[in-house]
Amino acid sequence: MTDDTPVVALGALEAQALEAIASAEDRDALEHVRVDFLGRSEGRISAVLRGLGQLPPEDRPKVGQEANRVKGVVAAALEARSSELAGGSEAPAVDLTLPARRRWKGGLHPITQAVNDIWHIFRDLGFTRARGPEADTEWYNFEALNTPLDHPAADEQDTLYLVDSVLLRSHTSPVQMRTMEKHDPPIRIIAPGWVYRRDTYDATHTPAFMQIEGLVIDEDVTFVDFKATLGEFARRYWGPDTQVRFRPSFFPFTEPSAEVDVKRVITRPDGTRVETDWLEIMGAGMVDPNVIENAGYDAEKYTGWAFGMGPARIAMLKHGVDDLRTFFDNDVRFLAQFAS
């Protein structure tokens, strides 16, 4: 006749273990319960399994089966209670509904894109690209361009001087003179590059910015060529419906001089097309004969025209940005819009 005492004892251990598990208030208390009932050396249920060899042979299968059942029930209860204490048994370890993280997509800066777009248009119109030093002399930055040193633009409040007569160029116009010194006409160049001024950093100014200079020198170049070329550029850049106007102005190195404005046609989200207000995009004009003479050319034989524009302003108009500083804040969330 078999002895049911070990089986009864296992039932009592099961009840005690389940009650202790339900009462555990934190992970440390739960670990204490696990060691107390299932620990290898001190666990009370483990002790029953270790003592199977001391039971009568006929009782071993029944007691062993019951001990394994109780061990499985207690282990499952421990795991369930551990999940509850960790934040809920129904909460998955990983929320698969969250969107995946994507790598930041790099691309050209919007001002760099504007420079490239402008360059490609003028390249198709027969222009080549030129460059010059960012640190230059008063002669190339002012005097050679028909700007005397007592002109307000040469004042230290506007120009960043380095040493003696060397300064950080305040426009890319010095590239005009350097190109004319090295090459004979005809000349058709654009010169993109950084320029520097003592400007306040605000919504429309920065102390360092990109500028694009353009220059044409040849025989029989007229104001008609000047207007036709810049009008063609504007229509290629902003669209065939773009209107261009030239307002009289003054620059020391051009005569006559003009401010160039454009009126664009934009399409609203609802599909309607409207005209914008007139917007200034550049200063330009016919090259002053004094500048041509300073380059060593015969001003009676050669004429030309020049322009200067800020690609940052062009990019602002194109993308509807109203604060220039946005381009230089290096916020990748903003810049990612322009990555292609």
Descriptive labels:
340 residues; alpha+beta; BirA Bifunctional Protein, domain 2; 3-stranded antiparallel beta sheet; 12 strands
> What's the CATH superfamily of the largest domain, by name?
Bira Bifunctional Protein, Domain 2
Question: In CATH's first tier, which class of the largest domain applies?
Answer: Alpha Beta
Number of domains: 2
**In which order are the strands of the major sheet placed?**
1-5-6-12-11-8-7
Shape: rod-shaped
Largest sheet: 7 strands, mixed
Helix-strand pattern: HHHHHEEHEEHEEHEEEEEHEHH
Helix and strand content put the structural class at alpha+beta
Helix amount: 25-40%
Stretches with pLDDT under 50, minimum 5 residues: none
In CATH, the topology of the largest domain is named: BirA Bifunctional Protein, domain 2
**How many strands in all?**
12
- Please give the alpha-carbon distance between the first and last residues: 86 Å
**Total of helices:** 11
Mean pLDDT comes to 85
* Proportion of residues in β-strands: 15-25%
Spatial extent as radius of gyration? 41 Å
Describe the structure.
The structure is a single chain. With 340 residues, the protein is an alpha+beta fold. The chain has 2 domains: 5-85; 110-338, Bira Bifunctional Protein, Domain 2 (BirA Bifunctional Protein, domain 2), CATH 3.30.930.10. The chain is 37% helix and 22% strand. It contains 11 helices and 12 strands. A 7-stranded mixed β-sheet has the order 1-5-6-12-11-8-7, with helices on both faces. Strands 2-4-3 form a 3-stranded antiparallel β-sheet. A hairpin with a 5-residue loop joins strand 9 (265-267) and strand 10. Helix 1 (5-23) packs antiparallel against helix 2. The longest helix has 26 residues, at 60-85. It is rod-shaped and about 130 Å long. The relative contact order is 0.11. The mean pLDDT is 85.
